Amino acid sequence: MTPAIQDATGVELHLVEDDEAMRSSVSRWLTLAGFTVHTHGRATALLPSLEYGAPAVVISDISMPGMSGLELQQALLKKDADLPVILFTGHGDIDMAVRAMRAGAYDFIEKPFDAERLLETVRRACEKRRLVLENRALQMQMQEIGGLHARLVGSSPAISHLKRQVLDAASVDANVLLVGETGTGKEVIARCLHDLSPRSQAPYVALNCAAIPATLAESELFGHEPGAFTSASQRRVGSLEQATEGTLFLDEVVSMPIDVQAKLLRVIEQREFCRLGSNRVRQANFRLVAAMNIEPREAMERGLLRNDLYYRFNILEFRIPPLRERKEDIPILFTMFAEQAAENYQRDMVYPDAGTVAALMGYDWPGNVRELKNVATRFILSPPAQGEPFIPFKAAASGVERPEIGLQEQVRAFERSLIEDALRRHNGNIRAVLEDLRLPRRTLNEKMQRYGLMREAAIQP
To answer: What is the three-class DSSP state of 208?
Structure first.
C-alpha cells in the first residue's frame, strides 16, 4: 500500500497489476497527482476488501495469472454495478477490452499508455463515483425522511421542528431524553431514533418502568441467575443485555425506584454491569432513550428522579408537543386513524365533514394523539346518522365546557386538511391532486405555500 494525500473527491484508487515495475511506476505517478493509491499484485487480493458503496475506482491489467482483469471486473460489478473499473490492455487484447466495455467496464487504456490520458480517465471515473455515492446518500436520506413523515404525521411548526430534531439526532450515538404528556407519541419518537440510526439492525428494547413492580425492577433491568432470590428458579436476561448494540428505551423512567436509578447511573458511567446473583462483569453497549411525562425539574424536586441521572440522560432533550399545540395536524391525523380503523375492522371509510372537523378542532385533547386515535376508531365503528353531529369527546355530553375557535380558523383548518389528505392519498402526485380537488395549478401552489405543505412530505418510500 502506498501512502498518499486523498484527492478532493474522497475516492481512493485500487491498482491491480502483476508486473511489479509497472505497478510501482503507475502508483507513483497517480500518487504525485494527489490520489490515494492501494496496490495489489493479484486480483484475488483486492476482491475481499471492496464492498457495495466503497468510495473507490479500480484500475486493473487484463492479462494476469490466476484471476484475470476481466473476471475481476465481473466479480466487482456483482458487488456494485456502478463501481468504475478501468482496464489496461495490450494490443492483442483490444477485442477483449471492447467486450469488457460492453459488459460494464468504465474505460480501457492500451499499453504503452499516455500518462496524461490515464490521469484524465481516472479523474473522470473518480468524479463519476463521487456523484453516484452522493446520489445514493440523497436517496437514502429521502427514504429516511419519507419514513419519518409517515410516522410523525403532520406539518405544523411544532411537529416539523421535532422531525428535524429526530433526523439530526438519529445518527448521533448520544443519550436522548423525551419529555411529553401521556399519549403524545414518545415511544414512536424513540422507535424513529432507533430505526434511523446506525444501530437499526440491532435490537430495540422498550421497558415501561411504570408497569414493573418495584421489587422486580432491578431484575427486569439487569437480569438474574438461578437462585439470585427466592423466586429466581431460572436464568433471566435483562433489558440491558437484550439491547446489546441496539437501543434501550426506558418509558416513564421516573417510576423506576431511586435505588435502581443509582445502579443504572453506574451502568451509564462505567458501561458495564452484572446480573443479579453473578460476579461476571458484562459490557453495556446500547443507546439509551428515556421518556417522562412530567417536567424533569418537577420530578427531581419531588424526589422521583436523581439529579445526577438526569444530567446523564439529557445530552439531547426533546419536548414532544401536546396535540393542543399542533391543532392544524388534527384533521390529517384523524383521517389517517379513521382509514386504519376502516381497514382493520373491515368497515367502509367515512370521511369527516366540516362539522366534524370543527368539533375536533374545538377540543383540547388531554389524551393527545392516543385519544384522537380512539375517537377516530369510534367514528368508523359507530358513525353518526345522516344529519346528526358527531360528538368526538364524551366531555361534551356531560356538559363540560370546551374551548371554541372562530369560523375562519375552522375553515382554514378544513381546507388545509383536504389538501394535505389529497397529497397523501395521491403520494405527492400534483396532477392527480389537481384533478381530485379541481383546482388550477397556481391556486394549489399558493395554498400549499400558505399552509406550509410540501409535496415531498407526502411521498411514501
So the answer is: strand
Residues whose CB is less than 8 angstroms from the CB of residue 286 and which lie 6 or more positions away in sequence, other chains included: 199, 205, 240, 243, 244, 245, 246, 247, 248
Question: Can the peptide bond before residue 112 be classed as cis, meaning omega within 30 degrees of 0?
Answer: yes
Nearest to 287, CA basis, from 320, 321, 315: 315
- Residue whose grid cell is 380503523: 341
Encode pLDDT of 210-254 as tens digits: 888 888 888 899 988 888 777 777 888 999 999 999 999 999 999
Predicted confidence band at 368 (pLDDT cuts at 50, 70, 90)?
A: very high
CA 110 to chain centre: 46
On the question of a common fold for 12-136 and 152-321, the answer reads yes
Rg (CA), the chain: 30
What cell numbers appear for 300 in the block? Answer: 427531581
Residue 424 or residue 317, greater confidence: 317
Q: Which fold has domain 152-321?
A: Rossmann fold (3.40.50)
Structure confidence by residue, pLDDT tens digits, 134-148? 777 656 655 555 567
What is the distance between the alpha carbons of residues 272 and 285, in angstroms, rounded to a whole number?
Answer: 8
pLDDT of residue 6: 40
Alpha-carbon 279 to chain mean position: 38
**By mean pLDDT, which of 7-21, 73-87, 366-380, 444-458 is the weakest?**
444-458
DSSP for 307-347, written as a single string: HHHHHHHTTEEEEPPPGGG-GGGHHHHHHHHHHHHHHHTT-
Q: How far apart are CA 161 and CA 21, in angstroms?
A: 59
Q: How far is CA 415 from the centre of its chain?
A: 31
Residue 306 and residue 54: Cα distance in Å, rounded? 46
Q: Which CATH architecture has domain 12-136?
A: 3-Layer(aba) Sandwich (3.40)
Which residue stretches of 345-367 are H helix? 354-361
Which candidate, 207, 216, 172, 169, places its Cα nearest to that of 189? 169
Domain chopping of the chain, boundaries: 12-136, 152-321, 324-458
Greatest Cα pair distance, the chain, in angstroms, is 94
58 to 7, 33, 88: CA distances (angstroms) = 15, 16, 11
The torsion angles phi and psi of 303, rounded to 5 degrees, stand at 75, 20
What is the SS3 assignment for 108? strand
Report whether pLDDT(14) > 60: yes
**Tell me: the pLDDT tens digits for 80-103?**
888 999 988 765 566 776 777 777
